[in-house]
Amino acid sequence: MSYKNLLSETQNGITTITINRPAKLNALNRETIKELHEAFKKADADKKIKVIIVTGSGEKAFVAGADISEFSDFSVAQGEQLAAEGQAKLFDFVAHLSTPVIAAVNGFALGGGLELAMAAHFRTASENAKMGLPEVSLGVIPGYGGTQRLPHLVGKGRAMELIMTAGMIDAHQALQYGLVNHVTSREELMDLTIAIAEKIKRNSSVAIASAIAAINAGYEDGENGFDEEITQFGKCFGTADFHEGTQAFLEKRKANFPGK
Predict the structure, then answer these.
(1) How far apart are CA 71 and CA 138, in angstroms?
(2) Is 115 one of the catalytic residues?
(3) Does 229 qualify as catalytic in the annotation?
(4) Which of 3, 59, 99, 137 has the most other CB atoms within 10 Å of its CB?
(5) What global pTM score does this model have?
(6) Which of 9, 59, 127, 135 is catalytic?
């Protein structure tokens, strides 16, 4: 499938989705959100793909924000619909994928860009990365999950300060806050991210999908994470991956997981 605003490449079971609007610093418009949904959906459906990496094109930005020109004249109802559709189509969709998603933040990740990075299962960053949710400086609030995911990642007080000040933090402060897992040079960012993806690939994709479901349940209203963990733990016992993994351990050999 060809995309207007994305590049998608798969090598050795790892799909890299690159947002490719460098003239707009990779800002998210409706068309790009739609294409991202399609690209993530396609990658997640392919059982040969074990990890998805999302990053931005160029040297300046992961995603510099949403394309404000698309909604500057929206009504209240249109604003609500914009947030609801965006969350369902992309941000919540990514967060609940069964395939691990790593955001390689290679520059500015602001507004919707940081919200996309936070929807990924975890994040790496280059030393030139800058992150923030500047929406209140425009008279609006983060609408793609930012008010919910940022406190989960950095704590309520830090999230309140970042959102209220509309400020930015650099990559090393993001690492200190727990917003990103690793920081490296811009040149080494993809190599580091791929090396982590290779470690993930060695493990059971079925078990990883269950772990994602259990972890997510602990952050959702009306869900009991411990109950979901018990359910997912039990489901693993009925999988071919569990049989292969335990037999490989007992036989002191490397597991060859079938992914089912």
Answers:
(1) 12
(2) yes
(3) no
(4) 99
(5) 0.95
(6) 135
Identify the residue whose tokens are 């969709």.
93
Cβ-Cβ contacts under 8 Å for 46 (sequence gap 6 or more): 10, 15
Render pLDDT for 1-16 as a digit per residue (tens, 0 to 9).
Answer: 789 999 999 999 999 9
Is 8 in a helix, a strand, or coil?
strand
Residue 217: its pLDDT value, please? 95
Angle between helices 225-236 and 205-217 (to 10 degrees): 170
Q: What share of the chain is helix, strand, coil (3-state, %, to 5)?
A: 50, 15, 35
Q: From the centroid of its chain, how far is CA 166?
A: 22
SS3 call for 60: coil
Residues 55 and 92: beta-carbon distance below 8 Å? no
177 torsion bin: left (phi>0), alpha (psi -120 to 50), beta (else): alpha
d(CA 196, CA 201): 9
Q: Which pLDDT band, with edges at 50, 70 and 90, does 69 fall under?
A: confident
Indicate which residue of 9, 70, 115, 251 is catalytic.
Answer: 115
| Location of structure tokens 């049989």 | 243
The answer for 12, left when phi > 0, alpha when psi is -120 to 50, beta otherwise, is left
The single-letter DSSP state of residue 215 is H
Rounded to an integer, what is the distance from CA 2 to the centroid of its chain?
22
Beta bridge partners of 235: none
One-letter amino acid of 228: E
Q: What is the mean pLDDT of residues 200-227?
A: 94
So what's the pLDDT on residue 77?
96
Torsion of Cα atoms, 118 then 133 then 25 then 46, to 10° = 20
Q: CATH topology for 6-201?
A: 2-enoyl-CoA Hydratase; Chain A, domain 1 (3.90.226)
**Measured CA distances, 104 to 22, 77, 116, 164, 197 (Å):** 16, 34, 11, 26, 11
